[in-house]
Amino acid sequence: MDFQSIKTKGNLLSIIAIFLFGVTITTLTIIKNNNLWSIGYNFHDTYLYLDYALRLSGVYIGGYEFIDTLSPLIPFLTSIAFRLGFVSEITLFIITGSFCVVGVVGLYLLFKLYFKNLIAILGSVICFSLSINLIWLSTGTIDIASTALSIWAIYLTFLGVQKNQKYLYLGFSVLVLGFFAKFTAALVFPVMIFIIFNSYLNNGSFKKHVKKTVIGIIAGIITVIPYGAYLINYNIPIGFINQANEIATKSTAMPPINNIYYYFQSLPIIIGNYSINFNNFHIEIFLELLILGIIITGIIIGIIMFIKFLKNYWNQPDLLFNKIAIKINTKQAIAIMIGNIIVTGLFFFIVGEISVIFSEIVFFLNIFLFTFLLNKLLINNGIKTKRINYILTMFMWFFTYILFFSAHLVKGTRYFIVMTPPFAFFIILSLESINNRISLEKRKNKQNMDKKSYFNFKNSAAVILIAIFLVFSISTTSSFGYKSSTDLYHAENVIEASNWLKTYDIDYKNKTIYSDRGEMLTWLLKKEVIAIGYNSMKNPKIKDNITERMLNNDTSYYIGENGLHLNGFAKLKSFGTVTIYINNKKQYKNNKNNK
């Protein structure tokens, strides 16, 4: 569906409905996150982006030079609001949350290219109702923003090859913005090239798109120039290049640590935020089982259909490909395609043993070759390839990221967010496959439903699922609170401690302060607070080393959890679970506040 077709009444109403869904869950999470006991106040990254936004708005804070190498888009947008006087955590929550609305609408439009209207709505609702998206929505983190922009980059590329090539200009520029939102969005680039490649296989129009593609890439490069100038002007290292070089040249092999099955094992938590436990059964577990059941059934149906397809064409004598010295018949092509699947699977299992970049390149080559041969086979037999190429694009999108993040040693369910759009696609594709299978079985048994009944059945299933996920997402966003497992104490106590310190020591900005909540206190005090690891003080040896370092650095205060015994420091003031410790050698005239 392109922008012209949006004007039709049905499409416009659907977009309005999906837009209101996005606004509703975003508003609820922003309100919830603004509560000190809830999501946004407890995450390390949130405060790094706030500190970065402060720096970009002109408020220089010493230290934390490494934040200049972070993804800049969200801090930059936040800094604009800061310059206008809206210096608050909620500003970041609103900016990151707004990308949810962008993503919800974009995903509906993307799914509308393949599915009927109601199923496209269902896919978008499912995607942004997954607990992993609800938990991290409007928290000040960058994953939702990068995912939303990736959705639009892929959608615009589809429009560029199906409707108007000029959309390619915009598609690559949007991808660059997605890259600046989070650097891993660069993995979407080969997916976009894959879409353009498929257009050539369909109608031989690759040459027609080359010029527009090149211009689109140039437009994307132009989008990069201001950021490049900023890095050069302030002599800031290009962080993502260093990271890419490290990933490309080093193996990630650490078998005792690197669990390549982590994201598959975490699917119940990603879907409903709970491990499956039949002794404590509730709505989230029901949704997890429902979604996993639909996907597994859809995969089984898909495998059966693919095997039948290969068997039907295995004995065809046709010469499928005859160019210069290369001659491939149907049987050879099918054998190569099976080989592609096996190699891709093997590279997933050994991705932790070799360079992830090498694995990605092998995967890209495999799926391009597989798609080329499959398209040749289908076209030679008069079968349209548009829908199968769309499915392969979604598979490539998903597998590109699952391969990358499975190989990466640092793992977290949050990294699955960028995979939720293709994941949601396979949920609704599985649902449609199940529906089609049921209809086929009815016909075989001569108990055919008429066409009207068939579509009513499918639409009824979609309406029921939409209702379930709407209730789940809205009730979840208005009731749940998420706390990181590394939380040492409540954010409210940290804020109380920082406010008290401002009045106790009016010269606090010129003092050296350490904390295991350094990023948060840097934001609250608007000065550098040297950060240490969250659990550092629980290890006696590390604690002694940090204490010695603090004394050598003439540290005035340490702000951390209660009950610590630090050599050279004494308890000054406690706030719930948080205590301010003062250097014994420091004397202050205004110590009357310490009561």
Model regions low in confidence, pLDDT < 50 over at least 5 residues: 36-41, 248-256, 451-455, 481-488, 587-595
* Fraction of residues in helix: 55-70%
Instruction: Please state the structural category.
Output: mainly alpha
Biggest sheet: strand arrangement: 4-3-5-7-6
Domain Glycosyltransferase RgtA/B/C/D-like: 72-226
Subcellular location: Cell membrane
InterPro entries: LipidA_mod_glycosyltrf_83, RgtA/B/C-like
Organism: Methanobrevibacter filiformis
Structure description:
The structure is a single chain. This protein is mainly α and 595 residues long. Helix 4 runs antiparallel to helix 5, helix 9 packs parallel to helix 16 and helix 17 packs across helix 18. 63% of the residues lie in helices and 5% in strands. The protein folds into two domains: 452 residues, no CATH class; 109 residues, D-Maltodextrin-Binding Protein, domain 2. Strand 3, helix 21 and strand 4 form a beta-alpha-beta unit.
Report a brief summary of the structure:
The chain is mostly helical and 595 residues long.
Which helices and strands, and how do they pair?
Layout: H1 9-33, H2 44-56, H3 73-83, H4 89-112, H5 117-129, H6 131-136, H7 143-162, H8 167-181, H9 188-203, H10 206-233, H11 239-249, H12 262-265, H13 267-272, H14 283-313, E1 319-323, E2 326-329, H15 330-349, H16 356-380, H17 386-407, H18 420-444, H19 451-477, H20 491-504, E3 513-515, H21 518-525, E4 530-531, H22 540-552, E5 557-561, E6 569-575, E7 578-583
Helix pairs in contact: 1-4, 1-5, 1-19, 2-3, 2-21, 3-4, 4-5, 4-7, 5-18, 5-19, 7-8, 7-9, 8-10, 9-10, 9-16, 9-17, 14-18, 15-16, 16-17, 17-18, 20-21
Transmembrane segments: 12-31, 90-111, 118-138, 144-161, 168-201, 213-232, 260-279, 285-307, 333-351, 357-378, 390-409, 415-434, 455-474
Domain Glycosyltransferase RgtA/B/C/D-like: 72-226
Protein name: Glycosyltransferase RgtA/B/C/D-like domain-containing protein
